[in-house]
Amino acid sequence: MQFRPFAMMKRMMPTGLYTRSLIIIVAPMVILQAFVTYVFMERHWQMVTERLAQKTVADIAFLLSEYEAHPTLDMATTLSNRANRNLSLSIAFLPGDHLPDTPSTSYGLLDRSLSDEIRSRINKPFWINTEQYSDYVDIRILYNGGVMRVLALRSHVYAANSHIFIAWMVGASLVLLTVAILFLRNQIRPIERLAQAAEDFGRGRDVPSFKPQGASEVRRAAAAFLEMRERIRRQIEQRTAMLTGVSHDLR
How much is the pLDDT for 203? Predict the structure, then answer.
C-alpha cells in the first residue's frame, strides 16, 4: 500500500466551509506568533539577560578586587555602603566562611548567564541560588580567606518583563481573532442558509422564508436559486396541468 501523506491530511481536514475558513484565519496567526515568540523574544530575552548579568558580575568583580587589595574591616564596610547606595547590591565579606554544600542552581537562563560571566571575569569558586528568594539572587564567591556574599535584585540581572509583551501580543491577537470570527460567521451564515434551502427544496420541502442575504456573490447565487425554483415550480405546474388534462380526456 502506497503511503500518501497529502491524501491522509486531506481526509483529516474538516469538510465544512466555516471550519476551513477558521483554519485559514487562525493557522497563519498562530504560526506567526509562535515564530516571533521563539525567534525574536527568545533571542531578545537571552541577550538582555546576558547583558544584565555582565554588568552585575563586572560590579562584583570590581568590589572583590578592591577588597582583596585592602582586606580590612573598614574597607569591607566602605565597599558595602557604596555597593548598596550606588549599585543596589547588598554585599558582605565573611572571613573564614565556606561555600554551601548544596549544589548551585544551574539549569535556568539566569543561572547559566551568571555562571558563565563569573567564570570568565572572576575565575574563582562560586555558588549561586536563584530560587530561594523571589526578589533577589544569592551569589557567593570564595576568595582567599573567606566568602563574598552578594544579594542582587532579580530585576537587575534578569529580563523579567518579557512576559508582559507576550501577554499583550496574545491578548491583542485574541481580540482580533474574536472580531474576525464574528465577521466570518456573518459571512458564512448566508451560504449555509442557501445550502440548507437547496437541500430542503431538493427533498420536496418548501422554503418560503428564504431570502438573499450576505455578500453580493452569495446574493446572486441565492437569486439564481430562487429563479430556478420558480422555473421548476412552473414546469411542475404545467406538467401537472397537462397530465390532468390527459387523464380527463382518457376518462
Answer: 79
